[in-house]
Amino acid sequence: MELPRRVLVVGLARSGRAAAAALARRGVDVVGADRDAEADPGDLAGLGVDVRLGSEDESLLDGAGLVVESPGVPGTSPLPAAARARGIPVWSEVE
């Protein structure tokens, strides 16, 4: 399966960081977002991930072909809900 050129990973706890890192290593343009301004993104910036903390602004979806939602992020959270409304596929990090 071919991945989209740009992916938004929502939730940067352990699973979200791992998903973002795996995608970045495959050459995908990754934006990693967490609504917690104090979240620890680890070394994601060093992998080329555009890390956005403390925001759930819908503009993060611009250009995204896929949203990867971490397990701790509720399905009704603003970004996944807005992605579904825009017709952008939302996957769990397991997928």
Account of the protein in words:
- The protein is α/β, with parallel strands linked by helices.
- It has two helices and five strands, in the order βαβββαβ.
- It has helices at residues 14-25, 78-86; strands spanning 6-10, 29-34, 50-53, 66-69, 90-92.
- Strands 3-2-1-4-5 form a five-stranded parallel β-sheet, with helices on both faces.
Question: What secondary-structure arrangement, pairings included, does this model have?
Answer:
Blueprint (H helix, E strand, L loop, with lengths): L5 E5 L3 H12 L3 E6 L15 E4 L12 E4 L8 H9 L3 E3 L3
Parallel strand pairs: 1-2, 1-4, 2-3, 4-5
Notable traits:
95 residues, alpha/beta, 2 helices, 23% strand
